[in-house]
Amino acid sequence: MKLVGIPAYNEEKTIGDIVKKSLKHSDRVIVVDDGSTDNTADIAKQSGATVISHKKNQGYGASVITLFDRAREENADILTIIDGDGQHDPEQIPLLVDTLQENNVDVVIGSRFLESNSTTPGYRKRGIKIITSAANFGSDFKVSDAQSGFRSYSKKAISSIHPTETGMSVSTEILLKISNKGLSIAEVPITVSYNGETSSEHPIPHGISVLLNTLKFVSVKHPLPFYGFPGIVLVIVGSVLGYQFLDAYLNKQAIFIGSLMATIVLFLLGAILCVTAVILFSMATLIREKS
């Protein structure tokens, strides 16, 4: 069974057209109405979709979680997730699904950056590139668009991936889980429309939030470079400052309490980071050995 899943929040202007076009390329369309206050749910039903409604707005990631849970319940062979705001073209669903089947990969991502004629606004492109670089650092593969919400998943991927993030950072969380599970991945070029209002969130705080959450996931997978190396540097700097303070004290030279406090803070912070790195590295190793 081929399912198309559409996370939707107040998308009454576009959801009907998206559902109708998606039905041409799937056995069933499931819309997760994430606490909309408009007619999104009713229009989606009238257009032929199965609608799952959240009582209140929980976030894009919560809708993705619901779609994965439903796909497992339906024993779906393929789950394609597409945005409900009109950014993605449902007519390109076969492009992802055919790539998934013909190349026998587990996940296919529709990337807006594989072709040079991308219409993505400059500020958005730069932000996505930064987030993508962070996600690639934590993965065993490289992608060009870590924030794309247009993706197809195989049965194996559906059963293996269990997202937990309720916000927009679910996209990068899924990428890191694909890497952790050893799933295969491919990208295909897609077109994206930025006509009209396609996001209800301000791009700067939204981008910072996604980047911080991405770094959180990456730091857990790679604790040594994220915590260990900075910790060692701080310990060394603190030790050098401590030696200089002690030498000045023993030789009855002028000493500054501020330098002593800086020494203590740097050394303790470095030690905490080093211990954190060791603990996270040990936990990650144990999890990998048991999985």
TrEMBL record:
Q: Which parts of the sequence belong to the Glycosyltransferase 2-like domain?
A: 4-159
GO MF terms here are: transferase activity
Output the InterPro entries linked to this UniProt entry. Answer: Glyco_trans_2-like (IPR001173), Glycosyltransferase_2 (IPR050256), Nucleotide-diphossugar_trans (IPR029044)
- Cite the entry's keywords alphabetically: Membrane, Transferase, Transmembrane, Transmembrane helix
Residue intervals passing through the bilayer: 224-243, 255-281
Q: Which domain of life is it from?
A: Archaea
Enumerate the CDD domains for this protein. DPM_DPG-synthase_like (cd04179)
PANTHER family to which the protein is assigned, alphabetical: RFBJ PROTEIN, UNDECAPRENYL-PHOSPHATE 4-DEOXY-4-FORMAMIDO-L-ARABINOSE TRANSFERASE-RELATED
The protein, known as: Glycosyltransferases involved in cell wall biogenesis
Name the source organism. Answer: Nitrosotalea sinensis
